[in-house]
Input
Amino acid sequence: MLGVMSASSPRFSTDDERVLMTVGSQLGVAIANFHLYERVLRAKVQWERTFDAISIRLPCSTAGPGR
Output
């Protein structure tokens, strides 16, 4: 996608800078989303372990009220 710049053209054009800024911004969002996903996943696993460790069995009925 991005070519290698030669020594004869050491500067980025305005369009190049815009593309690089956009790609950089999107990469930042993707990394932040990944970190959030990891936090949610860890919290979910912790919640499941806690829930599974509860030894009290709660009464559960499939019958509706008054049955």
Q: What stands out?
A: The mean pLDDT is 84. The helical segments are 14-53.
